Amino acid sequence: MEQKESARFQVGVAGYGGQGILTIGKFLAEAGMSRYKHVVFSPSYGGAQRGGESTCSVTLSDEEIGALVPLNPSTAIIMSPEALQDLGKRVKPGSILFVDSSIVSDKVNRDDIKVFYIPATERALKLGDSRVAGFVLLGAYLEATKAIPLELMEKAVEKKLAGGRGEALLSLNKQALREGARLVSSA
Question: Is pTM, for the whole model, over 0.85?
Answer without folding.
Answer: yes
